[in-house]
Amino acid sequence: MSENIRTTYSICPICGKQVVAEMIKKDDGVYLEKNCPEHGDFSVLIWKNKIDILSWYGEVETIKPGENSQCPEFCAENGLCSEHQSSTCCTLFEVTERCNLKCKFCFANKEDSNDKSIDEICKEMKQVIVKGETLLQLSGGEPTMRDDLPQIVTAARELGCKYVQLNTNGIRLAEDEDYVKKLSDAGLSFVFMQFDGIDDEIYVNLRGKPLFALKEKAIDNCAKYNLGVTLVPTIVPGVNSMHIGEILRYGVMRSPSVRGVHFQPVGHLGRIPSIPQNNSRFTLDELLFEVENQSGGLIKTGNLQPAQCDHPMCGFHGDFIVKKDRTLYPLTVKRNDTPGCCCGVENPASRKREFVGRRWKRAGISPSSSQSCVEDLSNMDYFLSRVSSHGFTITSMAFQDAGNIDIERLRMCRLHVAKNGKLIPFCVNYLTLWTDD
How many domains, in total, are found in the chain? Predict the structure, then answer.
């Protein structure tokens, strides 16, 4: 039994031309089905019916014929088109193509080359930074390959960045404490650290070497200099998809040093082992189900909301306080019970950016939220102090690839890559077309 529940637009994963796509609900999941006159039919799994997909969508407007007809080709060449519906929340800025790992999956898939000078970096940053607003994510490659990264952080701050975030595998942060201090002194806001589990077999499989001890040391070094760390697991079916609960419990136990967990179901873009089959996909609703199932009820699905400033299929977010007994007090309730959302405010990108900034940046621990105090979340002073010091987020980003890319989603993207002074939607910038052999 199958049902056509929505019509959108996608691309042929081989030639990249835009095509009509139908969302077809079947007994085992929802599929994005499309046809290219030259390369034939494609059916790509996007949902596993763990949650009703239309309920999750809410009231997102369906893309109409003729809208965004030049995407993604135009955006890849020229930056955001005039029909793009969302402003920038986070600007990803690559500072190097070098890396000290060769991961099996990597959206960047960079090859070593000479780094741009810091003067060139500053000139490009100046083109995309909006003073007093920008959240700049320094990425690569591996940004910590640059000895002058602290100077780049300082320059970004001087150009007016409100938040500067580091996207890293954490190796140098573990091995070079003085480097961490320099980053903190330069004004780094928080760290976004690759973290695929607490079992070294996972790292050997995905990253080529055991890394867990280094991850722990990186968290410790960041804690010494008051840099909050968000753990970023890439979830790959059969590799670490059964370790979601362990990752969450580890993150909660390391609060307040760890500020949250940001799950990324594996995206088949950039460097990938092979063309993805449907059994290699880990869908957003499957992640939601496993978060509750594997956490033993520590986190309820009802306390995780669809992305409200991006497209709901792009991810979810949940906001919590870590209590003294290491349970979580939810601050996020079901969407239908929430009065309003950021889509109804004048600048939803700003609201999302401030949510990230407040929650991922580490605050000092005040006496009123210390371990020695009696815990009383009904006391407003204690509540405000505890949410500042021990706030914890559970978020996700489900990247799109050539198989499941949806123009309806793409036009709402708020994660943009800075390239030659232009801003390009993340999934367009790293899009990898398939071969037809």
Answer: 2
